[in-house]
C-alpha cells in the first residue's frame, strides 16, 4: 500500500509541476520528434482523393474559415 501511495504522490507532483510550467510559460506541451513533418508527410490524410467523410469535414472547415473571415472585427 505504501508503494501505491508513493507512486500516486510522485505522479501528482509531476502533474502539478507540469501545470505550473504551463501557466508560467503559456506554452502547450508538445513532442520533440517533429511528428509527421519529420517523416516528410505534410498531413495525416496524405491520399490524392479523400473519402467522403473527409471531404465533408474539409467543407465544414472551409465554411467555418469563410464565416470567421466575414465576421472578423479587426
TrEMBL record:
The chain crosses the membrane at residues 6-24. Pfam families: NqrM (PF04400). It comes from Parashewanella spongiae. This is (Na+)-NQR maturation NqrM. Keywords: Membrane, Transmembrane, Transmembrane helix. InterPro entries: NqrM (IPR007495). The gene is nqrM.
